[in-house]
């Protein structure tokens, strides 16, 4: 009994210590006291709970989860559900955390808060939005601002990743977090200018909020602003201001922020700017995307985009095997996605395996008919690159959902015209017009009012008629022209074309139609012909008629005579031109081609000057050895001084030696000196 009483007293003292340490936030010391309590009673539920809380507060989530799993009989799900789910959440076991929350018998407010976070990480945004709305509606505490911030983050994610038009939550954007989330939602809608203004406001609010704390340094503020600046740079990149975006991205990287997710996104965006240029820089940036924990910080689409860019970078750096490996992995993860197969096809084209690339694309189109249109467009592009225009046309015409589109019709007609296949081009027009006729028939079915042809339909008919007329197919153009005239009987241009076409086929019909042409009186336009002819830009200006007076006529004649007397300027003659001497008739020929050319004269200079280094001669080296002379100069001669060679020496130094023909050279030098500056050495 005495031992039990002593143990109880010791436990009471330890519990007091635990309580005091908990209030002071000293959880490491509290943990020691809890462990002592558990030595007294290892199954104490309260002590076990306190131990788990202390471990969580110290960041030891794995150890805390181990304690919970070890004492499952004592720590049931009702007792420790929140702590277990929180540990699983922090250890990135999101699915397990969701199961733990859902299996709890009682859904406390803490569990509901954690449930919203788990749904956000699982990208179940609709459920997450409903959970936060319920929390905001049924909670009244100091954390209301944080819940609204999380709610706005969910709306921003929906707008960005699911392209859902965000609803107005009516939140007062009083904090920089709310402004930032609002800007992200605007980016998802493509409202870039508005988003930039929101980010600028968020930056201002962030500076104001942090500057109030005296312990926060300028570096801390810049680190907090890094994510806002990163989003600003992203907007610049979307707007085509790549230089500004790149500069801001690099500034953020220099700050070395601790957020690995932010660094990975910025590095990825820089790689997309570099493309196939500056691949060395891109290779360095890829390392930032491989940092530990990145996969838990980014959404699935962000991670997928990073992997796509890694595969493209491998292709640009000629790492064919790595490119194939990455693209194959991406295709296995997302079999219906277009980009992996397009990257594989691009790599095959770089290896000059165009046929294999087309086959790969064809297999994908057969397996995924929903994405066949995009794939077939790529196949057609490859065929055009190979010069197989006709095959490219066949591929394009197989895309049924695009056959009637004006852009597709225009492309096919242009390509067939290039191949001089006019019949196929006309067939393309005919099929497109028939599609619109069938569509109109379906639209008019059950309607008591006749619906007119759409502008696109009429435009196709007109283009078809013009094309046929241009290529001499007037008979085939008649039906199109009649249809156009029927839709607009006041169209004189179409009527004129129709009459021209009928004149070759049925002249009588042409005469009948010509009666519908307006009379010349109604066609006359009130135009000032004189003003038109004399206007700026007219190719012909009519001279004003009228007789000239005698004086004016004489002036005009005098001016004409002066103009006639003008002579061409004489060409400039050379300074040494002598009119008495007959010019050389061969002066226009190169010197080598002239009859009197005898080649270069061989002088003595060539024999005397050596082919060695500067100053060397053909004289023997022994003769030039100054050490063998009676006396040698003590030092090198100073510039401008006289010869420093001894008077007893008969040998002339190499630099002062005169080659043959030197006197003439000397005279020239003297003449040049006279013309030059006054000063000497």
TrEMBL record:
TPR repeat windows: 226-259
Biased amino acid composition, Basic and acidic residues: 575-596
Keyword Cytoplasm part of the UniProt annotation: yes
Gene label: Srp72
Segments forming domain Signal recognition particle SRP72 subunit RNA-binding: 543-599
GO MF: 7S RNA binding; ribosome binding
One of the protein's GO biological processes: SRP-dependent cotranslational protein targeting to membrane
Protein name, as recorded: Signal recognition particle subunit SRP72
Stretches assigned to coiled coil: 94-149
Family annotation (Pfam families): SRP72, SRP_TPR_like, TPR_8
């Amino acid at each position: 009994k005495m031992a039990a009483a002593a143990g109880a007293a010791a436990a009471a003292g330890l519990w007091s210590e635990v309580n005091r340490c908990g209030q002071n936030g000293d959880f490491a010391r509290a943990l020691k006291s809890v462990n002592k309590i558990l030595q007294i009673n290892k199954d104490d539920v309260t002590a076990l709970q306190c131990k788990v809380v202390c471990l969580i507060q110290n960041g030891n989530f794995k150890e805390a989860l181990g304690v919970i799993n070890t004492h499952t009989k004592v720590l049931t799900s009702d007792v420790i559900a929140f702590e277990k789910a929180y540990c699983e959440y922090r250890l990135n076991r999101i699915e397990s955390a969701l199961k733990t929350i859902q299996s709890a018998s009682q859904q406390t407010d803490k569990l509901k808060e954690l449930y919203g976070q788990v749904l956000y990480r699982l990208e179940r945004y609709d459920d997450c939005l409903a959970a936060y709305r319920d929390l905001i509606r049924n909670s009244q505490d100091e954390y209301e601002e944080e819940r609204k911030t999380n709610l706005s983050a969910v709306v921003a994610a929906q707008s960005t990743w699911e392209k859902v038009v965000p609803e107005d939550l009516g939140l007062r954007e009083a904090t920089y977090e709310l402004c930032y989330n609002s800007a992200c939602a605007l980016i998802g809608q493509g409202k870039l200018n508005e988003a930039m203004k929101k980010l600028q406001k968020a930056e201002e609010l962030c500076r104001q909020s942090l500057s109030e704390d005296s312990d926060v340094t300028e570096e801390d503020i810049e680190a907090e602003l890094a994510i806002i600046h990163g989003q600003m740079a992203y907007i610049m990149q979307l707007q085509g201001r790549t230089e500004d975006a790149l500069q801001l991205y690099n500034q953020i990287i220099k700050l070395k922020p601790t957020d690995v997710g932010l660094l990975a996104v910025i590095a990825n965006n820089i790689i997309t700017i570099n493309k196939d240029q500056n691949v060395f820089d891109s290779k360095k940036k890829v390392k930032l995307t491989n940092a530990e924990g990145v996969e838990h910080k980014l959404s699935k689409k962000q991670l997928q985009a990073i992997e796509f860019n890694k595969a493209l970078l491998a292709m640009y750096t000629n790492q064919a095997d790595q490119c194939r490996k990455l693209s194959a992995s991406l295709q296995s993860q997302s079999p219906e996605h277009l980009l992996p197969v397009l990257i594989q096809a691009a790599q095959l084209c770089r290896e000059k395996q165009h046929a294999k690339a087309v086959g790969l694309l064809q297999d994908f189109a057969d397996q995924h008919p929903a994405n066949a249109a995009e794939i077939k467009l790529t196949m057609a592009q490859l065929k055009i690159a190979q010069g197989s225009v006709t095959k490219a046309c066949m591929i394009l015409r197989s895309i049924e959902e695009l056959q009637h589109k004006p852009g597709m019709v225009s492309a096919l007609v242009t390509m067939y015209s290039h191949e001089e296949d006019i019949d196929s081009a006309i067939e393309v027009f005919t099929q497109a017009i028939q599609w619109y006729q069938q569509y109109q028939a379906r639209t008019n079915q059950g309607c008591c009012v006749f619906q007119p042809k759409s502008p696109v339909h009429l435009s196709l008919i007109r283009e078809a008629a013009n094309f046929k007329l241009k290529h001499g197919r007037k008979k085939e153009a008649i039906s199109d022209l009649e249809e156009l005239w029927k839709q607009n009987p006041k169209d004189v241009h179409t009527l004129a074309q129709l009459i021209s076409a009928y004149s070759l086929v049925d002249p009588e019909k042409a005469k009948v139609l010509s009666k519908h042409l307006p009379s010349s009186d109604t066609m006359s336009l009130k135009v000032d012909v004189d003003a038109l002819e004399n206007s700026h830009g007219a190719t012909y200006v009519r001279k004003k008629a009228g007789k000239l007076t005698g004086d004016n006529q004489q002036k005009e004649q005098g001016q004409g005579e002066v103009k006639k007397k003008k002579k061409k300027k004489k060409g400039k003659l050379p300074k040494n031109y002598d009119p008495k001497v007959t010019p050389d008739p061969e002066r226009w020929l190169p010197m080598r081609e002239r009859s009197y050319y005898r080649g270069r004269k061989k002088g003595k200079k060539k024999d005397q000057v050596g082919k060695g280094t500067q100053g060397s001669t053909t004289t023997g080296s022994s003769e030039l050895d100054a050490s063998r002379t009676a006396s040698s100069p003590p030092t090198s001669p100073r510039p401008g001084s006289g010869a420093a060679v001894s008077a007893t020496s008969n040998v002339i130094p190499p630099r002062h030696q005169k080659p043959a023909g030197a006197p003439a050279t000397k005279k020239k030098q003297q003449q040049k000196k006279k013309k030059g500056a006054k000063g000497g050495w």
